[in-house]
Amino acid sequence: MGRLHPWVGEMAGYSFGWCEVGGAPAVASGGKGVRQALAVLGAEAAGAPTRAGVSAAVAVELVHTFSLLHDDIMDGDTDRRRRPTVWKAYGTGPAVLAGDALFALAVETLAAQPGGAQGVRTLSVALGDLVRGQADDLLFTGRPWTGPKRVRPDEYRAMAEHKTGALLGCAAALGAVLGGAAPGTAAALDRAGRHLGVAFQIVDDVLGIWGDPGVTGKPVHGDLRERKRTFPVLVALDSPQAGRIAALLESGEAPGTAAALIEEAGGRAAALAEARRHLAAVESALAGAPLAADAVSDLRSLLEYLVRRDV
Fold this sequence. Notes:
- Helices cover about 70% and strands about 0% of the residues.
- By secondary structure, the protein is an all-alpha fold.
- A hairpin with a 2-residue loop joins strand 1 (about 80) and strand 2 (about 85).
- The relative contact order is 0.12.
């Protein structure tokens, strides 16, 4: 962060929870650290130097934070991690600038490492997929709840793999890439991360409807109030109760009733089953590559944490 313009660096520090608006020191949540952990564990699992994993973790976290700054603007979200979002605290233009600076810093970080050229290519592929997923997610909001033009679960899976899975896959593979691991090993880690991303997103969907606000930091039924096309909702809209659920979602009224109907229609159970299927695919990807047993054990512990967040 010290290499950034001081004002931009302050906004970046604010987004990481290091300071308040104006620069006063703060101790606030900086997120779960999932992508950084995946980068280090992926490098160790592939037999790459730990330093390669750390450099990958830094680059991926910079890109992740860049994407959050821009996502908050696109979604109009005013709060993140129980604080005003960067655009709300500093303005839209400054927040875009801060995000751009973090992206540039991520590329610079990778380019300076041995194997940096391949690392930048790996990150570029993930970013292209992330943009594709974000575009689909934005377009979903304009589509009807029912009828032939409604969003289908298969479309959601593709969106989640791109929007969430691409960067998780990149995180798992990037340390291996920087450390000179075999292409097949890096590809297996990328596949595992992409499947993890779909499972992670679906678990987030479940928490966004039925999660404990004290754990999630989000209001109960928040995703229903925001009319998000989440996996449990899309499954429920294929049930005989689709008409009633769609009417409640369209009106934004009685989210508790909508949540109960979605669960009754099998949306919650189907979502958790889908998450488990993708976790099985993660295991298959990991089993198909020559990886260090200790690091893979740590990866499995991380997976268990990600999908057992009080769902």
